[in-house]
Design a protein that fits this description.
The complex is a heterodimer of chains A (157) and B (334). Helix content of chain A is 40%, strand content 18%. Chain A is of the alpha+beta class. In chain A, the strands form two sheets. Chain A has a two-stranded antiparallel sheet with strand order 1-2. In chain A, strands 3-4 form a two-stranded antiparallel ribbon. The longest helix of chain A has 26 residues. Chain A is elongated. Chain B is α+β, with helices and mostly antiparallel strands. The chains are: A alpha+beta (157), B alpha+beta (334).
Chain lengths: 157, 334
């Protein structure tokens, strides 16, 4: 039986509620942390970094569009994404390729940017901070009254 | 910040946690396992759909069912509303808060910025309570966060009114009538009966025990669906997340359900049910072994045919165990 003392309780990870057998034999709640996050979080970040690099390489070569890049990185299903943007799945799939992406109007580009939670400008470029500077610098986005216009700020922590 | 006095408490599961907290606030003493059990929360379903980036399984009943089943079985009346226009939904939430009601709302989990980014994914069926507001922020009581948290009004509004699969449409609810006299014993029996029925008797090939068997069958074909070995590893390791992390209280809600059965056995003074709670706890341990196994082979990229067959076999054993368990449980309450 899952005993209370077997629950992970590291303080540097966000807690979650786990139901366990207490010492008196009753079952009840305790706070624990994610086993996966505790043991394998590095592996998750390594995988994401690899996908990011691979997809950006494909973007660079024009093999995929930014729509496909963001869909994979955000782990969105095609049907779900199409519904969020308000288009058919067939049309969405066309937008995975640059031939259709380059014909997209600004309104459609913004609809995608809103779903991906990035400024419209990030549908056309990436700002990359070198790995050695990532602990010192961060990028923040300041919205303006103009929905198409965002100020990107590179700030120190 | 104008804050409604509200007891914030973490919970295993967002919907049962939110419903429990609102019922407690309304004066009804009830635990999260009791809400989960009476509402027949335990379930299994294996899904392949373009709405998901990869096949996935769920270990609980349909989102919204916890509240609906609690209303039906306890006689609680919930005020509920969803909205065609976002401004109407925003105004309604604000007016309910101004009247002093803590209000539950449905959101896209991705926008819960007080949680670490690595656990936030686009899932439109997260439930939380809103318990205060100032000019810029709402005060949130989220079962997955240790403290109450502030969330920007713009962000919460976006999370309430995103589109997509199971779009929240600003859905909100709160209990506006809680009966004084509730027949808990009857509600417990009904909750158990429905859960057992749905696990073994629904004529749908991808839900209940049939869903577990489908999962066992299909997981060996996952390599054909993955982009590469790292993607396959990620999806296999997500088995651990679905069973342990995504609001389950551990072991795909089986530990939570075992706790319900124990509390039910005490209330009904039923030794047989007490025995079933121990069996469910042991089933939970077996699911936990599967989740650890999946995490390990995923991390090691040990994902050849033989290893996935082994995983499949372990899942099939769970189907056998849950078939036997829920059949017996069903007979007990029939």
């Amino acid at each position: 039986m899952m005993k209370e003392k077997e629950a992970y309780t590291k303080l540097n990870l966000p807690p979650m509620v786990l139901y366990v057998e207490k010492e008196d034999g009753t079952y009840g709640r305790t706070e624990s942390v994610s086993y996966l996050a505790d043991h394998y979080l590095d592996d998750y970040f390594d995988k994401r970094k690899k996908w990011d690099n691979d997809l950006k390489e494909q973007l660079d070569k024009g093999e995929i569009s930014p729509v496909y890049y963001y869909m994979i990185m955000l782990e969105l299903g095609e049907g779900d994404l199409a519904s969020r943007v308000g288009i058919s799945r067939r049309r969405l799939k066309k937008h995975f390729k640059m031939e259709a992406f380059e014909k997209m109007n600004l309104k459609m580009l913004k609809a995608y940017a809103d779903v991906f939670d990035v400024p419209v400008s990030n549908m056309l470029h990436f700002i990359v901070i070198k790995e050695k500077d990532q602990e010192k610098l961060k990028i923040s986005y300041q919205k303006s009254d103009n929905p198409y216009f965002t100020i990107s700020k590179i700030e120190t922590y | 910040m104008k804050e409604i006095e509200f007891k914030h408490k973490m919970a295993a599961h967002c919907e049962s946690g939110t419903v429990t907290a609102l019922l407690n606030h309304g004066g009804l003493e009830i635990t999260e396992p009791m809400v989960f059990g009476i509402a027949s929360g335990i379930f299994f379903g294996y899904f392949e759909s373009s709405n998901f980036p990869f096949p996935m399984f769920i270990v609980r009943n349909k989102p919204g069912s916890i509240r609906k089943n609690i209303a039906k079985r306890l006689g609680v009346k919930f005020y509920t509303e969803n909205f065609k226009k976002s401004q109407q939904g925003i105004d309604k939430l604000d007016s309910l808060l101004a009247e002093g009601h803590p209000v539950a709302t449905q959101v896209d989990f991705y926008y819960m910025e007080y949680l670490p980014k690595y656990i936030r994914t686009h899932v439109n069926v997260h439930f939380l309570s809103i318990i205060g507001k100032n000019e810029k922020n709402y005060l949130v009581s989220d079962s997955y966060h240790r403290e109450k948290a502030e969330l920007g009004a713009e962000v919460l509004n976006k999370a309430r009114f995103v589109g997509g699969y199971m779009a929240p449409k600003g859905f909100l609810f709160y209990p506006d009538y809680i009966p004084e006299n509730i027949d808990f014993n009857k509600a417990i029996i009904k909750g158990i009966k429905k859960a057992a029925h749905d696990m073994i008797k629904l004529p749908v090939p991808f839900v209940g025990v049939k869903g577990i068997r489908k999962f066992a069958r299909k997981v060996t074909g996952w390599p054909d669906l993955a982009r590469d070995i790292d993607h396959l590893s990620h999806e296999i390791m997500k088995i651990n997340i679905f069973l342990e992390d995504q609001g389950t209280g551990g072991a795909g809600f089986r530990f939570l359900y075992a706790t319900f059965l124990q509390q039910a056995a005490q209330r009904l003074n039923d030794g047989q049910l007490e025995g079933m709670s121990k069996r469910m706890m042991a089933i939970g341990d077996d699911w936990r072994n599967i989740s650890y196994f999946a995490a390990k082979i995923g991390k090691n990229r040990d994902l050849g045919k033989e290893r996935l067959n082994e995983l499949s076999q372990m899942i099939n054993v769970m189907a056998d165990k849950e078939q036997a368990f829920f059949s017996e449980l069903y007979k007990m309450v029939k």
